[in-house]
Amino acid sequence: MILTALATGACLASSSSSFAQEDLPGSNERPQKADVLVYSEGERAGDVIKPADLKAGGPPVRAWPKDPKTSVVRKGSRLNEILVVKLDPAELDEETRARAADGVVAYSVICVHTGCPITAWVKAAGGDKDVFKCVCHNSEYDPRLSAQVVFGPAPRRLPALPLAMDDGALTVAAAFVGKVGAQPGR
Questions:
Q1: Could you tell me if 66 and 38 are in contact, meaning their C-beta atoms sit under 8 angstroms apart?
Q2: Most buried one in 15, 36, 90, 140, CB count within 10 A?
Q3: 36, 46 in Cβ contact below 8 A?
Q4: pLDDT tens digits for 111-145?
Q5: Reading across the β-sheet that carries 36-39, which strands appear in turn?
Q6: What is the DSSP letter of 117?
Q7: What is the pLDDT of residues 61-95, one digit of tens each?
Q8: Rounded CA gap, 144 and 46, in Å?
Q9: Strand ordering across the sheet containing 148-151
Q10: Is the dihedral of CA 71, 75, 76, 80 positive or negative?
């Protein structure tokens, strides 16, 4: 009984600190210019992402923008979570290359079809390149071609987050290009 009480207390303490972080002013604001990107999950959650940390060709990592001045991680809205992947710059179309930082591109993790999170990095249904895949309804997006839809019912490409480099870290260069989230009425 004592162990159960201690475990419950530990859970509440850790979850309340998580909620406190999400309640901080700015935590639900969209990514801002100069925000740094930090890992959103795993043992490196909260660590700044550097291009050297990413494996060329994927898989993508999930990230949050973080205000470098206040240290507030913008994880108060799931619409702020980002997929970050390092690709060969020669494989990127001109539009994608202009938004990339040393071949690293970033897109919303939210599928534009019904708002499910994109969770897979798989060979494209119609090719040999790896693509983002939403397993809810099988939409696939090619990150080399501005995340345009290459398979499935998604009505439009994923919103892109332009990136820059600042002191070896990935930073936000501008607001999302495109509307984040699912189409209204879906």
A1: yes
A2: 140
A3: no
A4: 999 999 999 999 988 778 999 999 999 999 999 99
A5: 104-108, 82-86, 61-66, 36-39, 169-172, 163-166
A6: B
A7: 999 999 999 999 999 999 999 999 999 999 999 99
A8: 27
A9: 120-123, 130-134, 139-142, 148-151
A10: positive
Instruction: Kindly state the tokens that stand for 160.
Output: 């892109």
Q: Is the dihedral of CA 128, 133, 138, 140 positive or negative?
A: negative
Q: Tokens 């002013």, residue?
A: 25
- pTM here is 0.85
Given 3-state DSSP classes, what are the helix, strand and coil percentages for the chain, each rounded to the nearest 5? Answer: 20, 30, 50
Q: Which two tokens stand for residue 65?
A: 């923008």
Token digits for 170? 């990935």
Q: Which two tokens stand for residue 18?
A: 């998580």
Cα 70 to the center of its chain, rounded Å: 21
Cα 68 to chain center, whole Å? 18
Cα gap 35→109, rounded to integer Å: 17
